[in-house]
Amino acid sequence: MAKVSVYNMEGKEVGTTELSDSIFGVEINEHLVHMAVLQQLANNRQGTQKAKTRSEVSGGGRKPWRQKGTGHARQGSIRAPQWTGGGVVFAPTPRDYSFKLNKKEKQAALKSVLTDKVQNQALVVVDELKLDEIATKEFAKVMKNLNVEKGLVVLADNDQNVVLSARNMADVNTEVVNAINVYDILSAGKLVLTKDALNKIEEVYA
């Protein structure tokens, strides 16, 4: 089992904790990580793009001129794609881009990125994160103490004082354990876990 230091909100080391090898010490599966990122990005797409084909554009029911004898190229409609105001060739239509991954595949991908954070020393464990009030300045001070400029803070529960204090910071996001995902963990420079959140992750994903 890997051991990591536990820090307090002042950035001082107050102990160590062991990480479960079944979550933070697995073999990294880059393919599943790639698929998990693709799935999240695809599922976030609206898929509402739409343009009209020549059959949907208004007008152009009459042949603009006779077939032969005018000196012009033959034309069947003023709404053909080559005309200004004509339809679009192979126009995009609304579609659903989402696809599914198996539960075990999702978990394997998540464990892979958690392991990657440990291996790259980008995992920070805090004994607790408690704020008496909503204060971005105080939260920013805590992040500075922990040497986190860009990161994802994972909480065991939805602590509104912490969540709302972090909301105004451009490079720091917060999530509860049940909402963590591969894309957000990969995007974060450092992963900050409270001790309670770490215990909950090991319970949920063991």
Account of the protein in words:
The chain has 206 residues and is of the alpha/beta class. It has two domains: 2-45 and 99-204, Ribosomal protein L4/L1 (Ribosomal Protein L4, Chain: A); 48-96, no CATH class. Helices cover 33% and strands 16% of the residues. The chain is built from seven helices and six strands, in the order E-E-H-H-H-E-H-E-H-E-H-E-H. The chain has helices at residues 21-24, 30-44, 103-119, 136-145, 160-166, 182-187, 195-204, and strands spanning 2-7, 13-19, 123-126, 151-155, 172-176, 190-194. It has a six-stranded mixed sheet. Strand 4 (151-155), helix 5 (160-166) and strand 5 form a beta-alpha-beta unit. Helix 2 packs across helix 3 and helix 4 packs across helix 5. The longest helix has 17 residues, at 103-119. The chain is elongated. The model has no long low-confidence stretch (mean pLDDT 92).
Features:
206 residues, alpha/beta, Ribosomal Protein L4, Chain: A, 2 domains, 6-stranded mixed sheet, 6 strands, 33% helix, 16% strand
Strand order within the widest beta sheet = 2-1-3-6-4-5
Shape: elongated
Architecture of the largest domain, CATH level 2? 3-Layer(aba) Sandwich
User: Given the helix and strand composition, which structural class is it?
Assistant: alpha/beta
Can you count the helices?
7
Number of strands: 6
The CATH class assignment of the largest domain is Alpha Beta
Helix and strand sequence: EEHHHEHEHEHEH
- Distance, first to last CA: 14 Å
Report mean pLDDT, rounded to a whole number: 92
